[in-house]
Sequence to fold (301 residues):
Amino acid sequence: MRAVVITYPGSNCDRDLVRGFELAGFEVERVWHKDTDMPQNVDVVGVPGGFSYGDYLRCGAIAARSAISPAIVAHAEKGGYVLGVCNGFQVLTEMGILPGVLMRNQSLKYICRVVGLRVTTSASPFTSAYGADVVIDVPIAHHDGNYVADTDTLARLAGEDRIAFRYVDNPNGSVDDIAGILSENRRVLGMMPHPERRVEAAQGGTDGAALFRSLLAEMSVA
Amino acid sequence: MKARVHVMLKDGVLDPQGEAVRHALGTLGFQGVEGVRQGKVIELDLDHQDAEKAEAEVKAMCEKLLANTVIEKYTVEIA
Fold:
């Protein structure tokens, strides 16, 4: 299976994301934001964490309008898999691939620590290997992770079982403790916590590895 | 021709930064500040001659990039 990881100016988790995919068994190629085409036969696109364009204007806003963006949108629209982590989640909401917005943390503080995450649904290609209601430890590192959406969107996300992860102890003020959401076809996941920073023992734990394993298993069947 | 864009959070969207500013003003002894909302001002230098066209284009810029209309509203002034 083939994964692609995008790099923007200011991305700083792109290599970690590559490592996460590789450890699970993906073949990974890296793509620069100025490219306009995806490599052939890409199964999943990874949009990494970091501070693309220095978070100028709004987090992810400028990255979401970069040259590679139409190719990412096209990939998602034809049913391709997309994983956006942290700044990548912000980019996906700015592109309109996922609903809602990530606003400044309620405490106004940048928060960098390991948090408990509840796997809210196991019915997704990203979470099937966890099982529902399991709690995992994954790091967060963000200033703008406070998920906000209108009432209708929230009702739809909950009703369609599209909330992938919830914080056990809400660190940033996100509505309904939301840490990660799925697209309507469940093939796009955006999440603020960093599963790629929890894939090998040297990182202090491996709770993030099952996300990449889930994805590989799902695609191998599909 | 110059354009000035004001971007503000929509009413009802909680503004934690404005809230922090309001709190700080109270700490400094400024009484009676009931609410603070923080936004952005973006100034553009345009080579347009036609104010109407300039305004239409700046509005398109707001929709496409300058504002996130999920949570923000904007106004455009042409001068």
Notes: Chain A touches chain B through 21 residues (CB under 8 Å). Chain A has a mean pLDDT of 96.
